[in-house]
Amino acid sequence: MKHLPNAITCCNLICGCIATGFALQPDYGTALAFIIAGAVFDFFDGFTARLLKVSSPVGKELDSLADDITFGFAPAAVVFSLLGETTAGAFGPYLAYAAFLIAAFSALRLAKFNLDPRQSTTFIGLPTPANALFWAALATGMHDQMAQLPYAPALLLAGIALSCWLLVCEIPMFALKFKNYGWRGNEIRYGFILVSGALLGLLGWTGFSLIIVLYVIVSVFTNKCKS
Asked: Is 117 exposed, middle or buried (0-12, 13-18, 19+ CB in 10 A)?
């Protein structure tokens, strides 16, 4: 049983590899599905390790490696394919490689998370699963529209720069971690969950892109109010 959490983490990593393969085809909907599956495994590996009391340094390092594949490299592959489809001209194919900055900054964000004691109950910067879900959902829901926009490459490059900055910025962002399940003290969390459910109901899995935008806006707003 002591190897079960690491086995679940490996399932997360495999989901990321499969998502990357589908992203490069490109099949954005299936890539999104495997990123979501990876997020589920990512939740249960830590949960299982705490339940069985078998946390280990190896498990922590393996978890970060798996997360960078599923939530760093896979979304980078999604954006790489999007840029490849929307850019033209002599420099078009080379611009697409800018997408892999997402994988590099995701790795940096994960390394900072492992060493930052401030992130036990909240996050500092955008969590990598949120960034991955945003890009995969955006590609799934807006692919046809973006393919017709003449300025889509510029928007995508700006989006890459913004998401890389959000991953490593010093902006506190709330976590869906409950100390208790009462309404008091959890208003933002419950409100966010309700709105997210409504967006998913209206837009399907592609609603994740708007949910992540909402998550960033709410985090920035609540941080401003506290200060």
From this structure: exposed
